[in-house]
Structures are given as C-alpha cells and as structure tokens.
Amino acid sequence: MKNKNSVALLCAALVIFMTGAAFAAVPLYRLFCQVTGFDGTTMKAEAAPTEILDQEVLIRFDTNVRDLPMTFKAEQFSQKVRIGETGMAYFEVTNTSNQTIHATAAYNVVPERAGPYFQKLQCFCFEGQEIAPGATVSFPMQYFVAPEMATDAEVKGVREITLSYTFFPTKGFQQAVANDSAVGKAGERGL
Hints:
- This is Cytochrome c oxidase assembly protein CtaG.
- Keywords: Cell inner membrane, Cell membrane, Copper, Membrane, Signal, Signal-anchor, Transmembrane, Transmembrane helix.
- Residues 1-6 are cytoplasmic.
- Residues 26-191 are periplasmic.
- It comes from Brevundimonas diminuta.
- The protein has helices spanning 2-36, 171-188; strands at 43-44, 56-65, 70-74, 78-82, 86-95, 101-110, 118-123, 129-131, 136-145, 160-169.
- It has 191 residues and is α+β, with helices and mostly antiparallel strands.
- It has two domains: 1-40; 54-167, Ctag/Cox11 (Pfam 04442) (Sandwich).
- The strands form two sheets. A five-stranded mixed β-sheet has the order 1-7-9-5-3. A five-stranded mixed β-sheet has the order 4-2-10-6-8.
- It is flat and about 75 Å long.
C-alpha cells in the first residue's frame, strides 16, 4: 500500500510540474529570444552606439493586425539609416470599433540572422496598449542597426531589413468583446 501511495504522489507531482512548465514555456521562450535575438527577435538596447559607419541599410516596415477592429500602418514605408545611426519611425493605430481595445504588438526581423543587430531604444511593443473607441494614436519607435553587423560574415552583405509588427488582442480585450457580445445578443432578444 505504501508503494501505491508513493507512486500516486509522484504522478501527481509530475502532473503539477508539467502543467507549470507548459505555462512557463511561452514567456521563457520570448525572454530567450529577446535576450539572444534568436528567430529574428529584435533586442532592446539601453544606449545608442557611439560608432556610425558609412554603410547604409534600408529598413522596411510591415504592419499586421490579428483579430482586432483596428487599422495599423507605418507612417513611412521604409527608411535608410547608416549602421550605428539612430532612426525613428512612427506607426499609426486607429480603433475602428465603439469599444476600448487592449492590444500588444509582437515583432520580428527578416532576415532572421539580422535580428541580434537590429536593436530598439524605445518601442510601443514593450508593453500593452489601450486604445479608446474611435481614437487614432501615433506610436514612436527608436532603433539602430548595431555596428557589429558590418563585421559578422553571416550578415555582412545584408543591406535590407524588414521589421514586421503584428497587433493582437490581450486577454482583457477578448473578455470585453465576449461580454459585450453576450449583452448585445441578450438585448436583441429583449432579455
């Protein structure tokens, strides 16, 4: 009987551990990508480089929206910056609904091998956003391409980088939409 209790306790502990690991996997992977630049994830920088090279890189901006009633666009399609130079881009979001939107922007860089060198000093993607009904908001993003890219043989010839953003709903927005939909349907039925 003692062995059966030990096995049951071990199985329960394993299930709890695996459940915890499943919930921790996504945040840990995101943190790993942000720290290493893995999979085209850009890195957050504390300061701009002091060295500016005489080599230009064309930065293209791509914007996407997933499951949100909003428009999202870059105010400029592309920018040319010198390696090491600080660039500033602006993005415009319009909430096309009559509800407050809670959203977060995820991002990546193509080609992926340029991810560690494309670094952001300031970005709206570092935290969730709340956008009022019908509001249009302009978000700045300050960035640079690290000078080390010029000496890395794997990315030495890269002269174009695409920064892609996707806004997706946060949990609060999904709950609000579900609640408003339920209230609206109940009102339509005269309940």
